[in-house]
Amino acid sequence: MKLVEQALKYGVTVAVGVILILMFGIMSLLRIPVQLTPEISQPELSIRTTWPGASPEEIEREIVDEQEQHLKSIVGLVEMESTSKTGIGEVYLEFQVGTDLQDALVRTANALNQVPSYPEDADEPIIKTVNISDRPIGWFVLSPLPGKEDEVNVYHYRDFAEDFIKTRFERIPGVSDSSVYGGSPLELQVLFDPHALAERGISIFKLREALRNQNRNVSGGDFDEGKRRYIIRTTGEFESPEDIENTIITQIEGRPVYVKDVAEVKVDYDELRDYVRHNGLPGIALNTRREIGSNIIEVMKEIKAAVADMNENLLHPIGLHLAQTADKTEYISRSINMVTFNLIVGGTMAIVVLLVFLRSFYSTLVIALAIPISVIGSFLIITVVGRTVNVILLAGMAFAVGMVVDASIIVLENIYRHRQMGKDTRTAAIDGASEVWGAILASTLTTLAVFIPILFIEEEVGQLFQDIAVAISSAVTLSMIVSILVIPTLARKLLFYEELHPTSSGIIKNVFRNVFGLVPLAAGFNRTVVGGLKWIFQFPLVQSVLILALTLVPLYGAWQLIPKTEYLPEGDQNVIFGMMIPPQGYNINEMHRIGSEMEENYRAYWEALPGSPEEAKLEGPAVRNFLFIGSRGRLFAIVKAKDPERARELIPVLKKELDKVPGMIAITRQLSLFSSAFSGSRGIEMNIMGPDLVKITEIARDSFFKLKDIMPGSQIRPKPGIELGQPQIRIQPRWESIAELDLDVFELGYSVAALVDGVYADEVFLNPDKVDVPYMPREGIDLILQSREQAVKQTQDIPEMIIYTKKGRAVPLINVAEMIETVSSEEIRHFERKRSVTLDISPPPEISLEEAIDLVKNQIIQPLKDDGTLSGEYSINLTGNADKLEKTRDAMSGNFILAIIITYLLLAVLFQHWGFPLIILLSVPMAAVGGVVGLWALNLFVMQPLDVLTMLGFIILIGVVVNNAILIIYQTLLHIRKDGMFYRDAILESVRNRIRPIFMSTFTSIFGLMPLVVIPGAGSEIYRGIGVVILSGLFLSTIFTLLLIPCLMNLSFGMSSGPGTPVTPAGGGRRTAPAPGKALEGMLNRSSRT
After folding, report:
1. Would 663 be classed as within a structural domain?
2. Of 922, 1032, 1035, which Cα lies nearest the Cα of 969?
3. Would you call 358 helix, strand, or coil by DSSP?
4. ∠ at Cα 96 (91, 99), nearest 5°?
5. Dihedrals φ, ψ of 946, to 5°?
6. Nearest residue to 715 (alpha-carbon basis) of 655, 773, 634, 660
7. Are 279 and 261 in the same domain?
8. Is the pLDDT of residue 744 over 60?
9. Is 90 exceeded by the pLDDT of residue 165?
10. What does the pLDDT read at residue 320?
11. How large is the average pLDDT for residues 166-194?
12. Contact 940, 934 (CB under 8 A)
């Protein structure tokens, strides 16, 4: 082969090429962005529209329904959901994978422009992109410094946090945005006296208009005078509370009525809407999100530097401290360090295996060089194709460690064999590499070919698979180049050197021969296998029975052992989430009381040190952070262990604490790697749809309790709830009465809101020098109109509220409206434009996702269909990971078959024969059997479900396990063609010659993979399943290949006498097959000469 000859001739060129690959590979590795998992692109948009004070029903009717009507026909739309809550309407759009997000944004904006109108006080809708990779990378809490708790009210620093801390975070390169939770915004309150207004005949609405009309700056144009241009402005915006107090509302008998005559004006803080507490202290929570494609490790370093700087120069001087409570990079660093360690251990073990088989330091060194060249060089390719360094990609690299030496083993072993024939080192290197070049090319192409179907998987798992495909394909391709160019060059030099200095290699050989006894053992095993095959060949019936037994029995056993499927691994991050959903109607004070009790019960956990006697008394490990956020409808608890390896032990501890509160729906789980915190990778979304909110809520409630019975231990989150328990008082105007009083509905509703809870009037920009507050927001504050005395202390007070008309008349509310006391929902959800209640179901660990889906379909949905509950406009739809699992499983099944077909056609081209590829592919079922058995055995020690990442291991097996069969068949055909052997002798000689490299490549792959399977640690749950499938499948397939493939070859040659099938030595009067890969080999030779 000319290519090998050129490599030997220009050894310096080959060396320079290797150096350049290593150099640029290292440079690429240092520059590639680092993250936990690959970027997952699922085109999604959210549309948020605010209408202050509007009820969920009003948001649904006036905003969401109108928007959905125009959004439903957008090209590429897959799914549409929406929520209508008090003051806010949100619509979520999911598009087909591959949809250009910018085009989707334009189409969505155009559709929203078709909405005829929005309510007067509603804001314009805001469209944002949504990405699964857009979850926060860090959480922080602003709290008082120790000893400053009584001096500093941190809740008053929300505006400060937004203007300084949030802004500082968002200026960091790589940070996309930051959000603030908790605290009270500053507002300007006009506390009016209803009686003073009544005495002067002033309505609340008139007070509002007076303030709004005064609080304006108006441009008056400009004019030129000489060389100057003057700008005219009329200024009236309020700069201080005194400006508002001195605002004239009206004139009575020629005398002005000022605001100060009827109201008190003061700057104060709004009531708390969310409570945030961290380790016993009040606080304000902030998070940070990274830009897609940025290096998360570097971004977090910058964030931490910014936090340190703000603490020292901004926060500590005013008695505050910003502490980080969650850091996503901690788990990423642990995971990447773990897989890197496994990669190094696996590579080291593979080298030891080589040393055991080769018994030569120099030979081992030659092959071992393929590992760093192939792995490091792969990062150059990874950079070119735009991938990132993540756990899945590095796991792919670790899988490839054992594979990259396969080609080098075959080449070097064959060079040694030719050297033992008496050839000089140069000839042995050329002939040895050229002889097996076709087999190496075939095995490399089959390994690469199995990844082609992965390109057609559009779901999110397809995007995860691509990183493994890129890693393995890059490394294996480079290893093929190394085996043909680098290995012969080094082998020629080291063979010559070893023959001149045989002492060191002789010592190693004697150690393995005399001390370990491996050489006689290996030789005996070789003789046993070859002798056994020779005996079997004499009895066709035994041979046929053996083939059937080796094929059918393992397949049946594997079918019995195959586990049910899951979607994606959950992960083992050091973040435990708890959520409590109260009965509808709980107020914020009650939620704060519950959270405070839970905090006190947990105090001992964050005060204890790991390994201390205090920790030993606890039910779980010591806690680093205990954060809770309480709002009207939810209470969240976020816990982190001081020892990350023990985080999972906190789940039952937190669950026990949450379950203490009666009437609550409690959910506790570990943060998932690939899904939201509360659904996880095992979540099933059961959408109950229909026009009547009462009926679908009843169906949801019945299903909730039935699911608890059929899946004990499951965690179910209803969205929005399973009760319509939000107390509501609906004020229905008496139309004739309000018409007589010249009232309209807006004025009536505005007056009621001002009397009950206060209402927004305008936005003001006060001069900080004229207001005595710790901090004045830059963006302005809300001007609120509110009754000085609480007008409503109980429901009986509502009918007696006094409403003031435009003409100054005062009438009780009961005279102009009817009070109807009802219950409603705090939130109204839509799924595909239909009202819905969603049950987010997480089955217990002992029930697989596939089993849980079957239980929901058979024991919940089907009975509802049978009894007629689900009929007409009422239906149930399963989405979330249930839908994704079904789609992915179908895609994986089809792509598994497609990978086999592609491999078969590729082998047919390389061998120029239709029969040999079929024999080779019979090693695939045996590999699948081994994968299933290995997965079953692993589950005896640690839980490892058959998730879709583990399924990928079976596809990878197709391209890996055929290599041994290719080697035996290729060598058999070479013996028949070149050496003129009888087919039976050629088969036995091929097994005798190739058993050593087969076991070398198998054991290097197995020991290279073993650390990924047996060493637990952060991130191991991602790749452990793939590893055990490949490891066990490869091992079992190798054993079966040595028996099954020779028997099939012997049976095939013995039964066939058609054209092109070798049955006798060449020249013996019968036809011979074309040399395998001869056409391809000739083409390569011609190209090398060119």
Report:
1. no
2. 922
3. helix
4. 95
5. -85, 75
6. 655
7. no
8. yes
9. yes
10. 94
11. 91
12. no
Per the CB < 8 A criterion, the answer to whether 682 and 565 are in contact is no
Residue spans of beta strands (DSSP E) within 22-76: 44-50
Q: 630, 588 in Cβ contact below 8 A?
A: yes
- What is the pTM for the complete model shown? 0.79
Structure tokens at 961: 């396990």
Q: Do β-strands 781-787 and 186-192 pair in parallel, antiparallel, or remain unpaired?
A: parallel
Q: Exposure pattern of 732-765 as b/e (b: 16+ CB <10 Å)?
A: ebeeeebeebebeeebbbbbbbbbbebbbbbebe
**Antiparallel, parallel or unpaired: β 576-581 and 175-181:** unpaired
**Angle at alpha carbon of residue 231, lines to 230 and 235, rounded to 5°:** 135
Task: Give the helix ranges, DSSP H, for 871-922.
Answer: 881-911, 915-921
- My answer on whether 948 and 1072 are in the same domain is yes
CA angle 916, 919, 924 (to 5 degrees): 130
Looking at residues 635-660, what average pLDDT do you find?
A: 87
Which whole number is the average pLDDT over 763-792?
83
Determine the Cα–Cα distance for residues 581 and 634; give it in Å rounded to an integer: 5
Please state, for a pLDDT cut of 90, what percent of the chain lies above it: 21
Q: What is the mean pLDDT of residues 97-101?
A: 81
193, two tokens: 């006296």
Residues 173 and 247 in one domain: no
Same domain, 922 and 967: yes
* 41 within a domain of the structure (yes/no): no
Find tokens 């393992």 and name the residue. 554
Look over the chain and give the mean of its residue pLDDT values, rounded to a whole number: 83
**Same structural domain, 196 and 325:** no
pLDDT computed for residue 614 by the predictor: 86
In terms of domains, do 414 and 510 share one? Answer: yes
Number of domains in the chain: 3
Strand (E) positions, 555-634?
A: 576-581, 623-630
Token look-up 């160019």 returns 485
663 pLDDT above the threshold of 60: yes
Quote the radius of gyration of the chain (alpha carbons, Å).
37
Q: Which has the closest alpha carbon to 290: 203, 187, 174, 380?
A: 174
Q: What residues contact residue 11 under an 8 Å CB cut-off, 6+ apart?
A: 489, 493
Q: Quick one: pLDDT at residue 1078?
A: 44
DSSP letters spanning 481-502: HIIIIIHHHHHHHHHHHHHH--
Domain residues for 809? Answer: 186-206+232-269+727-824
Single-letter amino acid, residue 686: M
Whole-number Å distance between alpha carbons of 982 and 899: 34
- pLDDT for res 726: 67
Query: How many alpha carbons lie under 13 Å from residue 191 in its C-beta half-sphere?
Result: 10
pLDDT at 1064 over 60: no
User: Which domain CATH number covers 771?
Assistant: 3.30.2090.10
Q: How far apart are the first and last CA of the chain?
A: 13
Cβ distance 312 to 136 under 8 Å?
no
The model's pLDDT over 50-93, given as tens digits with 9 standing for 90+, comes to: 987 788 888 999 999 999 999 998 998 999 999 998 889 999 99
Q: Are strands 665-670 and 263-269 parallel, antiparallel or unpaired?
A: unpaired
